[in-house]
Write a structure and sequence with these properties.
Hypothetical protein af1432, 5 domains, Beta Polymerase, domain 2, Ubiquitin-like (UB roll), six-stranded mixed β-sheet, 758 residues, alpha+beta
Length: 758
């Protein structure tokens, strides 16, 4: 279409159409021409061919959005132009700018992906398609939907960072113009911005965008507090303007004497940062001392440290307020020297020293890739920016299929607080604050994490759960016999560590559940007169295919796993499998059927599941009755939780028998259990000094282990309080010996086993 089509102004670029002397349509046309001219003025880093491509995209978008208006009354095209303008500030390539102009065309105007491919090529169409999917995401829905939506966005970002950069530009313009939206939507959109987009902007190093989004969200979430704080900062700025100008003159003069060319700019803490500091540390506005600062841009990295020395000679440094982010960069690639000095009138001033290249990365983060590309196409710096973190998203995705779980892993890594630790060889590693030794181990390599046995911090042995501090030298020793423990999830903090541990445990649980399922199905099949499961071969494929259609599973492995987890009942599957095998020409063995069905009361049977304690996730022992080898037991196949073993007399068993009798199956103890089992013991004692030590010594003398001790608050006031011990024993005979020894112990009045909580 022609360039005479109405095109709106950039915000603040010219008077509103209503104030122009021309008619409204003419005003809109003039405004549109001016706004696009403002955009093209920023495209000087592109060649003429690329600028023409951007122009074509603009004309297409303008035609597509013709007649659409924003809530402000401006033509809708103002929004895509503003988004493209922000992308131009980051020096994004022509494809990204075209996608920014077209980002609402698919959803709002009925334009298809095919249309965009034919007109602008596949790369632009893919970007617009990615953005359209993101626009459809609803973050205020149920947690599962929110997690799934967020997962899509993060993965889109990991595959092509331009997607999230355009999305952030889109969100920034929407936040700038949110005053035109109904007030009822402010809180939801502002919270979504703080929870989702602000951490991403920070994590990608887009500090300018990060600070602006924070302040805009704060403004619409807490309008009154924002207004009061803004007024206070303005007053303080006016009072301290002369002081800051004096500091700036003194600094420039000090650097000029050394012959170093520097550029100084003032820096003011964002309103949201001030508000956060006041809220978290319970400070008044007057107590926040680091509102103002000065940024010094120097020629080289060495000059940063030279400049630091000059500043420390000029003003006194505040102890504990120096940070070297050059030697140890932040997770998002940020580099600077930070120091706080006591300036004139005892005013604290924070100084940041960095090179021009560091400044570009500090303000633009991952977008610096395109900034560098625009000035120096061969620069390797930008290619490293945030690449590691983005790749880690894809790694977590490969191991985590559950969306909520994926979000749990990733949100830990989104927030930027970090600790910096060293390997024994002196390599620096950055980990999120709160990270433990196990996080460090997985950060080294997944194999080191999976086999982590012992650890040392600063040459002292520590548990794997020990929290790391900046400056720690961490050493992890491995053992091939060690495997990830479910307890590790209790203190693993990083997304990488948690996803690796869960992936291992799930794989292990699946293997064990499949083995259990195979055992249960074979047992049930024997009761139907069939000796064994049909083998997996072409001759039996027909049987397995029909059975899988019956159960709804995709494979034999999935079927057996579901039986092991209790999602399918083995007897029902066995009956169907028997009829299929009969159709295929196999006849049930009447003798086998009789023996299996009528020997169920015997303690030893071919089909019973033998338990020796080596079972992991597929078999659990009931917390209600805590059976030990020697106890009469039954197995309950819970829905999705695998096999749960109960004492025969357990109250829970009696209740379940009424409603779920078909889910019970025969289990038996192996001849030689390989581990100890926990059970509860109730001990009533005389309340005098040292009685607990005597009881503990008695238990220890029997080679039993004390796992936990609990006391009733009510009974502790009495002369004969009750002590509840959770102890580990080998079997029932061992437990009987423990009870016998305890009964003989002085001060022990009564001893009994805690049978059931029912």
């Amino acid at each position: 279409m022609s360039t005479d089509t109405p095109k709106p102004p950039m915000p603040g670029s010219m008077p509103k159409p209503s104030s122009l002397p021309a008619s409204p349509p003419a005003a809109m046309a003039n405004a549109a021409a001016a706004s696009f001219a403002a955009l093209t003025a920023r495209l000087d880093y592109l060649d003429a061919r690329d600028i023409e491509k951007v122009r074509q995209a603009y004309r297409f978008a303008d035609q597509a959005h013709l007649g659409q208006m924003r809530k402000s009354g401006e033509p809708y095209i103002t929004h895509p132009i503003a988004v493209a303008g922000q992308c131009a500030e980051w020096k994004l390539d022509a494809e990204a700018l075209m996608a920014a102009l077209l980002h609402d065309a698919m959803e709002d105007c009925g334009i298809t992906k095919i249309d965009l491919i034919e007109r602008f090529g596949a790369p632009v169409a893919e970007l617009v398609d990615g953005l359209t999917k993101l626009d459809k995401l609803e973050f205020n829905t149920r947690e599962e939907n929110q997690a799934e939506s967020f997962r899509k966005m993060l993965l889109a970002m990991a595959r092509d960072p331009r997607v999230i950069l355009i999305k952030l530009a889109d969100r920034t313009h929407n936040m700038r113009t949110m005053g035109d939206m109904p007030r009822s939507k402010w809180a939801r959109i502002a919270n979504e911005t703080l929870d989702i987009y602000v951490p991403i902007a920070h994590r990608l190093g887009l500090n300018q965008t990060y600070r602006e989004l924070q302040d805009l969200a704060f403004q619409h979430l807490r309008p009154w507090r924002y207004a009061v704080l803004k007024k206070a900062v303005t007053r303080a700025r006016n009072r301290r303007r002369d002081l800051m100008q004096k500091v700036q003159r003194d600094v420039e003069a000090a650097f000029a004497e050394t012959g170093m060319t520097v550029r100084t700019t003032g820096r003011e803490k964002s309103l949201f940062s001030i508000y956060q500091k006041m809220a978290q540390k319970h400070l008044s506005f007057a107590q926040v001392t680091d509102i103002y600062g000065l940024r010094v841009i120097v020629p080289s990295t060495t000059d940063c440290y030279t400049g630091l020395g000059l500043l420390h000679q000029l003003y006194k440094p505040v102890p504990g307020k120096f940070k070297d982010y050059i030697a140890i960069p932040k997770l998002n690639g940020y580099q600077s020297l930070h120091t706080t000095l006591v300036g004139p009138s005892n005013m604290n001033v924070e100084f940041q020293l960095r090179t021009e290249a560091m400044h570009v990365v500090a303000e633009s983060g991952v977008a610096a890739h395109w900034l560098y590309k625009a000035t120096d196409p061969n620069s390797p710096t930008a290619h490293r920016l945030s690449a590691k973190w983005m790749q880690s998203l894809l790694d977590i995705q490969d191991e985590t299929r559950d969306a909520t779980e994926f979000w749990d892993h990733v949100k830990v890594d989104l927030f930027p607080d970090a600790v910096y630790v060293f390997t024994p060889k002196g390599q620096i590693m950055a980990l999120p604050r709160g990270a433990t030794v196990i996080d460090f181990a997985y950060a080294i390599h997944s194999k080191v994490g999976n086999q982590a046995a012992t650890a040392k911090i600063n040459h002292e042995s520590v548990p794997l759960r020990t929290e790391l501090r900046s400056g720690d030298v961490v050493e992890v020793a491995t053992d091939p016999e060690i495997t990830p423990n479910p307890a590790w999830l209790g203190f693993a903090r990083t997304g990488r560590a948690r996803s690796k541990i869960r992936h291992y445990l799930k794989t292990l649980a699946q293997t064990e559940s499949m083995s259990l399922g195979e055992k249960l199905l074979t047992q049930s099949l024997r009761a139907e007169g069939m000796e064994k499961l049909p083998e997996e071969n072409p001759a039996n494929q027909y049987i397995w295919d029909k059975l899988l259609r019956f159960t709804g599973n995709r494979s034999r492995t999935d079927l057996l796993t579901d039986i092991g987890l209790g999602k399918l009942i083995a007897t029902i599957v066995a009956k169907r499998l028997t009829s299929l095998m009969t159709e295929h020409g196999e006849k049930p063995d009447a003798l086998l059927m009789t023996r299996e069905r009528f020997t169920a009361h015997e303690s030893i049977s071919q089909g019973a599941v033998a338990l020796d304690g080596t079972e992991n996730a597929s078999v659990q022992y009931g917390q209600c009755c805590r059976p030990v080898p020697g106890d009469p037991i039954v197995g309950y196949l819970g829905r999705g939780e695998g096999l749960v073993v109960h004492h025969q007399d357990c109250g829970v068993v009696k209740r379940l028998l009424h409603k779920d009798a078909e889910r019970f199956l025969r289990v038996e103890w192996a001849d030689e259990p390989v581990r100890m089992f926990e059970t509860g013991v109730l001990i009533t004692v005389s309340n005098h000094k040292g009685v607990l030590a005597k009881v503990a010594a008695a238990v220890s003398s029997t080679d039993a282990d004390i796992v936990h001790i609990d006391m009733d608050e009510e009974t502790t006031k009495h002369d004969s309080p009750d002590l509840r011990f959770l102890i580990s024993v080998h079997d029932l005979a061992h437990l009987d010996n423990v009870l016998r020894i305890l009964k003989r112990t002085p001060s022990v009045l009564q001893v009994s086993r805690i049978r059931s909580v029912a």
